[in-house]
């Protein structure tokens, strides 16, 4: 019950955080609600890890749920670290990833229902597949959405360190 309650609080407090007006006009509310969201993720992630270790479905299912919890804690932790370092752009991206993982149970239920409808696999097979697919597939598509613009518009990442010029052709010297 604690895991379910924490997940519901995360869903309920996470969604309004994406409203620009809340972030712009009510910064203190955004911060307080963000702390509630993060606290619920920590509680939900920790209880999710416990539930994964006690699962009796299959080891693959348990591992998928354990890594779902790790992904939830990690994406949320990265968002928190980014905002502590005043990196707002990274904070926004990591919060989107975090909320995608928060909603993994929705894709889990939908995916398992679709697989059952089409008679694909046993119940244990479907649960094992969906314990991984419910978070890994949405995170993959989220990452594609983040990276598609720079990839297809040709925007280059800012060079870092001395390696940025290591492979540039040299004028007047060996190529």
Elements, N to C (H/E): HHHHHHH
The structure class reads mainly alpha
| Radius of gyration, CA atoms, in whole angstroms | 20 Å
Estimated helix fraction: over 70%
Overall 3D form: globular
Beta percentage is: under 5%
- Major sheet summary line: none
Give the termini distance in whole angstroms.
Answer: 65 Å
Rounded mean pLDDT is: 89
Give a brief description:
The chain has seven helices and no strands. The protein has 175 residues and is mainly alpha-helical. Helix 4 (59-84) runs parallel beside helix 7 (123-153).
Textual characterization of the structure:
The chain is mainly alpha-helical. The chain is built from seven helices and no strands.
Topology readout:
Blueprint: H1 2-14, H2 20-25, H3 27-53, H4 59-84, H5 88-102, H6 104-117, H7 123-153
Helix pairs in contact: 1-3, 3-4, 4-5, 4-7, 5-7, 6-7
Question: What keyword list fits this structure?
Answer:
7 helices, 0% strand, mainly alpha, 175 residues, globular
